[in-house]
C-alpha cells in the first residue's frame, strides 16, 4: 500500500482497475468492514471516502468536538419544514471524512437494549437477535471494566468512563437516585435502566475513533487501498449484477469489484447512491428518468432518528462550580489529559415514561457543552441536559432531488408525526424537571430557560415543538429483513434484486436502538463483515 490511511491517500489516477471488494464510505462502518475483510491476505479492498482527513489536533480532543460540526467535516443536509416541529427545518449533520461520525460525535457508547436486537430478529431479520449481536459488541471493545458477559477487553475500540467528573455530574446522579432511579456503574451491563455515568470511546483523555481502532492498524496491509476525496457517483450495473463503481468529481474513473461493492455511506448517502443507480422505488426512480435495475420499495423508507429536546438550567453558583472543576482547562489537558476538555458525556439517566413498558424509552444526558439549538448567551453559564426519545414511532424518507449525483437528497424524518412521540418527549421533560427539583440540583440551578417552574400541558407542548431537534442518529433506510420494506438479506447482506451488492451500515437498522447509535453501528459492521466472509 503506497500510503498509510492515516497519513494521506493516493491521487485519483492511482486508483486500481479492479479489486475484490470496494467499500464505499470510510466512516464508523466502512473502517470496520475494510479492516475485517483485509484480515484475509488474499482479499483486496479499496476503501473510498468522499471527504478528507480531519484535523487530528481538533478530532483528538473530546471537548473540541463542536468545532467539527460544519463542512467539510459533515454533510449539511436540511430537512423540509417539519409539521410536528412548528414548520421548522432541522439541520442533519452526518460525518464526512475519515472516521465519519466516529471522528466528530460526542463519543457516547451505548449498546442499546437487548430487546432492540431481539425485535430485529422477530421482525424479519433472523440471525440478528441479542444473542447473535452481543459477541460483536464484545469483540469491538477494549473496555476499562474488563472482560465480562457484557464487555470485551481486547477489541479495537477503547471504552472508558469520564476522565473528568464535574461536580454537576455527581449532583445529577444523586438527584436521579433521590427521584427513585437505580444507580448503576454500567448502563451497558446488568442494569440498563437507571442513572449513572456515560461511557465514551476515549483512551487516556483523547478520542478513540475507528481510525484509531480499526483503520490505523489495518493501514500497513498491502491488500488495503484507501482513497479520500473520492465520491462515488453511481454503481456500475450489468443486468442485476453490480460490477463496480463510477467515481465522481472532475475526473471520473471506473473501478471494478470482482466480488462485490459494500455500501457504508450511512443512512442518507447509502440509499441516495442506491437510487441514483436504479435500485429503489420504481415509480420514484422513473420520475427522475433513472432506469430501474431493481424495484425495491424499502430503499429510502423507514428513516428515523432519536428526536431530542435540549434544556438549559442556569447555574446559581457558577464561579464556585467552575473553579472546582478546572481553573485552566487547557493546562490540565495538555499536561495531564484531564479536565473538562478530556470528557464530553457526564451523568446519564435511562428510564421508562410509562411503567407498563418493557424497556426504557427516554434518555436524559447532561453535559458540559450545549447544542447550538439551545446554546446559552455568552454571559450565561448553564447546565445542559438533553431529553432524547429512544423508541420513536415516526418514520420518514430519503428521496432524490434529481438524478444529478452532486445534488443533495431530500431528507425528511417527519419528526413527531406519530402523536405518541410528542407525548413521550413531554413526559421525558417532566421527569427531568422532577430530577432538577431534588436537593442536590435545586441548590445549584435555577428553573430551565423557557420552561418556568411548573409549566402546564400547553406550555410544555409549545416548548417541545419549538426546541425538539435531531440527535443526529439517523438509521433505517436500507433495512434488514424479508418483509415488504426489507432491502438487505439478513443472512448474506445482499441488496434485494441484485448480486455483488451489499450494505453494512446504520441504514440496516430495522428499528433504532435505545441509545446512541455509534456502538451498534460498529457491531452491525462487525457482523456484516463476518457474513460477507462466509458468503463468498
Question: Secondary-structure map with pairings?
Answer:
Elements: E1 18-24, H1 28-37, E2 45-48, H2 56-59, E3 74-78, E4 91-95, H3 101-104, H4 114-122, H5 130-140, E5 141-143, E6 157-159, H6 167-178, E7 194-197, E8 202-203, E9 206-207, H7 210-218, E10 224-227, E11 232-238, E12 241-247, E13 254-263, H8 266-276, E14 279-280, H9 282-287, E15 294-295, E16 307-314, H10 318-325, H11 329-336, E17 345-351, E18 362-367, E19 382-389, E20 397-399, E21 410-412, H12 419-436, H13 439-442, H14 457-467, E22 469-470, E23 501-503, H15 518-535
Parallel strand pairs: 1-2, 1-13, 2-10, 5-6, 13-23, 14-15
Antiparallel strand pairs: 3-4, 7-17, 8-9, 11-12, 12-13, 16-19, 16-22, 17-18, 18-19, 20-21
Helix pairs in contact: 1-7, 1-15, 5-15, 12-14
What's the overall geometry?
A: globular
Overall tally of domains: 2
- Overall structural class, as computed from helix and strand content, comes to alpha/beta
**Residues in helices, as a percent range:** 25-40%
Q: Indicate the proportion of strand residues.
A: 15-25%
Low-pLDDT parts are 1-10, 369-377
CATH class of the largest domain: Alpha Beta
Spatial separation of the terminal alpha carbons: 24 Å
Main sheet? 7 strands, mixed
Fill in the CATH topology of the largest domain: FAD/NAD(P)-binding domain
Radius of gyration: 22 Å
Average pLDDT reading:
92
Question: What is the second-level CATH architecture of the largest domain?
Answer: 3-Layer(bba) Sandwich
Number of strands: 23
Number of helices: 15
What is the CATH superfamily classification of the largest domain? FAD/NAD(P)-binding domain
